[in-house]
Amino acid sequence: MTWWCTGIRWKDGHPAIGWYGEGRGERVSELSYGQRIAFVARGERHCLGVRRAGKRTPCPTADTLPGRAGNAQCPECARLDRSFSVAADTNAADPRTYRVYLAWFGPGMVKVGITAEERGAARLLEQGAVAWAWLGRGPLMATRRTEELLRAALGVPDRIAYARKRGVRTHLPAAPERAREVAELHARAAALPGWPESLERVECEVADHAGAFGLDALPGLPGPARVLTEMVPGGSVVGRLAGAAGPDLHLADGLVVDTRLLAGWELTAPGAEAGTSVPTSPIPSASAAPAEQGGLF
Known about the structure:
- By secondary structure, this protein is α+β, with helices and mostly antiparallel strands.
- The protein has helices at residues 75-82, 122-127, 140-154, 162-168, 175-190, 210-213, and strands at 4-11, 14-21, 25-30, 36-42, 50-52, 55-57, 97-106, 109-116, 131-139, 200-201, 207-208, 226-228, 236-245, 248-251, 255-258, 266-268, 280-282.
- Residues 285-297 have low confidence and may be disordered.
């Protein structure tokens, strides 16, 4: 029975690797900082189908995927997924309560977004938000209108390129400075006219994920930081886990493993296949060096 990697999962504020076995459901392998990880990609990368309401429907055509794709879905499964997506505005009738948030990733790098209240801070962990605060709560469309209001009035984006978040993660200002920037923007947002009447305001209370991400261990990692750009059959990753943020695993040798590129692969313990080089590239804002042999976990 094959278990396919589904990428990182944040469980109760801690990182874990998700797995899917057709007919056997899903499970996770919890991670801890300081542990040694080692794995090899086996066979081909497969579409993971569509996951909805905690259940996964297999890809009907069992499509294979390229190693560089950031999403482990074939075009048809991706289209079906988006047809039920709040982010794509295709599920406007969702009756759940939603929350509007501000998420901070680095100096001058703040975004606004919405998430279902029942998910708590999971969305912030998944995005790699270092500091964040709630702005309000209410029906889906009220939170969506508030999001648009803040984007237009304050110039706050709803998306930030992940390479930018990753590039500043090892040299962030101290927690008080992070909190100050979030609190100042929260105050500006709260003072704006035009908030929907059905949205309940939430007082500013800045939370910080530095501990959950293990950020204190990231500055001073040896060698030039590199990021995995593609998984290949037989490609291996071996190293010690220093931290994790969003979809990234940070290894003690400076390699950053984007687990979105692991999703859809069967990962096994290193053996005869180990030793194949996997492509890496320098992280923006880090000193550059030629790509080196990687491993995955």
